[in-house]
Write a structure and sequence with these properties.
It contains nine helices and nine strands. By secondary structure, it is of the alpha/beta class. The chain has a seven-stranded mixed sheet with strand order 2-1-3-4-8-7-9, with helices on both faces.
Amino acid sequence: MTRERIVAKPRLLVPQTAGFVYCPGCHEPLVAKAIAEVLDELEMGDSAVGVFDIGCSSFLLGILDIDSVLGPHGRPPDMATAIKHIYPNNVVFTVQGDGGLLSIGADPLMGALARAEKITIIMINNAVYGTTGGQMAPTSLAGQKTTTTPGGRDVSKHGFPVHAAEMIATFKGTAYSVRCAVNNPYNYGQTRECLKTAFAKQMRGVGLSFVEVLSACPSNWHLSPADALRWIEEGLMLEFPLGEFKNVDKIE
């Protein structure tokens, strides 16, 4: 009997023999799985370089079987820029949290955008600082309770949540800016397509590509994994709608 394998673990995912490091219900491993599948499908695994930030995304360093480095907090766009200039034929991407990219990493982000660096930035948006205890992040929703806003985020004091995909789309050097999610099979499939497009823009030298992924953080949201899925649809997606905000093949 001839058997055809329909589904399997992505080749570029490393088995976690020492134990799984992510909290139950966390979506970061799904983002890693999507990246691994896309790189494998595009046959870019041997030429990919991942630059990971301090925080929850740093654990992906040991999950993805690609060349990778761990950057200082907020500085992966700078490191990715240097790597891309040295190895222009490699696909170079960062994986960062919303806090690491939009707060401490805002300066490197703005520089990369202004220069239209041919890199891909992947931002995982869970609306809190995950690793350090669930503090308010630039993307925390109005009224959202965190460890630093126990009464809820007050926009009159703390400002409004940052809409990264929309903001990044306004930069002339941006070739692609999109927001997606992995909370159900359909959205996971769409995220894979977004990553394919982002990497393709980079390899064609169009400009910077940006992929924001809405991600569950049940531990810091103080929700069960199932309730966290519902809050993505009833909370995060209302503030941060999914979709493409820029998709161009030439920057003029």
